[in-house]
Amino acid sequence: MKKISIAIDGPAGAGKSTIAKIISKKLKITYIDTGAMYRALTLKLLDNKINLDDINSIKKILTNTTIDFKNNNIYLDGKIVNEQIRTNKVNNNVSKVAKIKEVREELVKKQRQIACNKSVVMDGRDIGTYVLPYATFKFFITASVEERGKRRYKDLIKKEKDITLEKVIEEIKIRDKIDSTRELSPLKMSKDAILIDTTYKTIEETVNEILTYIKEGR
Ligand code: C5P
Q: In the chain, what percentage of residues exceed pLDDT 90?
């Protein structure tokens, strides 16, 4: 199979990572969850009690941090942090960290390195517009904010008992606003991306729709 790259962008809770993971398995290509990279760095900053306005300390931490993927696990400084990066605390701080120029430069460099010599499916906010502008396929996956909130709530309530659906929807709206209005590579649909609204679609339907586009476009 010739080398391909698939960019999947969209707002929080649209189902991007679930869908990207299935596509990576079906096509036997590498999956890169770029949101997990911003989350891992945020986790480290929070654990080290770094003030998120203190750019100098953040830059220092950035030069002393390794973030890697192996077998669909995310490693922060050599330790698996799959669960720790999905807490509500990280959810509510990650967009602030992801706005920082030095953070984006460093993580985008790493994302491009991973994608440069193999086929990948990469999900995030700026993949089709900035990280991989020449991606073979670009999709923009979205859903109503109520539906996205419900999906996130279902995940979070298993581990965090004092959250409510209303609060989760409110927090998603705040995150979307920061992500789509920030100065550097904001969340935006690339002009050449295919838009998929998953509000009334199952995961399987969305995956099949994407695979059909890929088969026809190849
Ligand atoms: O995709 P996920 O919800 O895990 O992303 C977490 C956060 O990381 C986003 O809300 C956004 O602030 C940031 N992000 C980003 N660019 C990406 C991927 C994620 O700014 N490519």
A: 93
